[in-house]
């Protein structure tokens, strides 16, 4: 058991695996709730389990949300059913790795978080504004990372619409068609028993599309998320040991104590020769042959046009 915890700790100590961290957080919460369900059910305390899960669920009722504002975040890290989390995490991994490779880890995280928030706001909005759903407001609550995963998927599809996935029995399919299929599927299911959840998917999808389009025009919607991530990282960064110099009779701290967190490695805008070399490599070997740095250089160059 200690080996499992050591593996988890090592993954969280790494700086460039944000996608894995998101998947691990979802998995840990799922397993913790599963264990709690077994223990509380055997102890004939089923009501306690419902109360526990409700701490994570996003309520449709504004009156309940006022007392649980954190649920606008926690709901898209929480699952109860094995196939729900399995599908969402696979969907997130397939598309999230593309965003990570081309735009970097912090933008992938921003897409996930902002998509989840957008999906939650859409969910609350439709249940309180559309007459068809208003009768169910008090009893409706949502959990699951579907809206956040849809945001990442549509973001990747907007960024790289002609990138292909090799699907079993279907062969190579462009990801824009995969994303479009799931958007239509969610829209078709918006009048079923999980109508609110499926419409929340569309809120996440819209956020992913807008995020990439604005980024390509020079506006980054993720800046508030980056600022919060930077502050959170600084809060838990190990501080350097104080050094005392008796000769000068004063205490010196390492200069890095007061410096801001080092920004992530940036990719300079390449010159035309570099662009031509990258394009030649794509024509010969395809997008998959590019390194992460080459992909980011190509994206930076496209923003300047």
UniProtKB/TrEMBL annotation:
Q: Where are the transmembrane segments?
A: 18-40, 72-96, 108-130, 142-163, 175-192
Every copy of the DUF6576 domain together lies at 271-303
Which GO terms are recorded in the biological process aspect for this UniProt protein? Answer: proteolysis
- One Pfam assignment: Rhomboid
The way it spans or sits in the membrane comes to:
Multi-pass membrane protein
What's a single GO MF annotation on this record? serine-type endopeptidase activity
> Keywords of this protein's UniProt record, alphabetized?
Hydrolase, Membrane, Protease, Transmembrane, Transmembrane helix
- Report the residue ranges that make up the Peptidase S54 rhomboid domain in this protein: 69-214
List locations, semicolon-separated.
Membrane
Keyword Membrane annotated: yes
An example Gene Ontology CC term for this record = membrane
InterPro entries for this protein: DUF6576 (IPR046483), Peptidase_S54_rhomboid_dom (IPR022764), Rhomboid-like_sf (IPR035952)
**Protein's UniProt keywords contain Magnesium:** no
Write the protein's name: Membrane associated rhomboid family serine protease
Which organism is the protein's source?
Rhabdobacter roseus
């Amino acid at each position: 058991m200690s080996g499992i915890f050591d593996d988890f700790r090592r993954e969280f100590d790494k700086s460039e695996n944000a996608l894995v961290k998101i998947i691990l957080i979802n998995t840990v919460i799922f397993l913790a709730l599963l264990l709690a369900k077994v223990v509380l059910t055997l102890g004939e305390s089923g009501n306690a389990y419902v109360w526990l899960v409700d701490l994570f669920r996003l309520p449709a009722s504004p009156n309940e949300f006022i007392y649980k504002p954190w649920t606008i975040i926690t709901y898209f890290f929480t699952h109860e059913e094995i196939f729900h989390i399995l599908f969402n995490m696979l969907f997130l991994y397939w598309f999230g790795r593309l965003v990570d490779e081309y735009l970097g880890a912090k933008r992938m995280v921003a897409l996930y978080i902002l998509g989840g928030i957008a999906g939650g706001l859409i969910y609350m909005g439709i249940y309180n504004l559309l007459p068809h759903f208003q009768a169910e407001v008090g009893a409706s609550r949502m959990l699951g990372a579907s809206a956040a995963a849809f945001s990442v998927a549509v973001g990747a599809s907007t960024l790289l619409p002609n990138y292909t996935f090799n699907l079993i029995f279907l062969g190579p399919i462009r990801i824009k068609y995969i994303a479009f299929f799931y958007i239509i599927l969610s829209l078709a299911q918006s009048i079923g028993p999980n109508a609110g959840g499926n419409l929340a998917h569309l809120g996440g999808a819209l956020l992913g599309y807008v995020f990439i389009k604005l980024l390509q025009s020079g506006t980054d919607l993720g800046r508030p998320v980056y600022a919060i991530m930077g502050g959170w990282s600084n809060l838990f960064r190990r501080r350097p040991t104080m050094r005392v110099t008796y000769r000068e009779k004063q205490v010196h701290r390492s200069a890095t104590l007061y410096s801001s967190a080092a920004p992530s490695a940036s990719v300079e805008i390449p010159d035309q020769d570099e662009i031509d070399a990258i394009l030649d490599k794509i024509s010969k070997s395809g997008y998959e042959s590019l390194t992460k740095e080459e992909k980011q250089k190509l994206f930076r160059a496209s923003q300047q046009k």
